[in-house]
Amino acid sequence: MPTNLKAGIKGDGHQVRIGAAVDFRLTLTNRSDQSCLLDLNADNYELKVYSGTDRIWSTDDCTRLVTDRKQTLEPGEAAAWKISWNGKRSRHGKSCQTGPEIPRAGYYYATSQLNGAKPVQYLLILK
To answer: What residues does the Intracellular proteinase inhibitor BsuPI domain cover (predicted)?
Structure first.
């Protein structure tokens, strides 16, 4: 059950050079006292980068970045994987295309969200 899963997100560091790629290390940990089935796919999971209400990039725009996985997690066990953001704005749709704009200097948040689980954020400071 997703409510028993705790999301985690880490990056290469909070300060990032403008236009540089960022590798996110993502986890979902079973915090219940029973085993649970993790069913992760592009329909129920999203990693996105935004500034304020401006959505910069999302795995919803490139669903192949989210690898389908079904895994039984024992109590306390975590599933871990990586997703890279290329440092550019993604175009809406499933085409994996980026726009010509590169995000400017400022504060951004990456949010990891599995439907039904509490989202988790990671601060990025683009310089």
So the answer is: 19-115
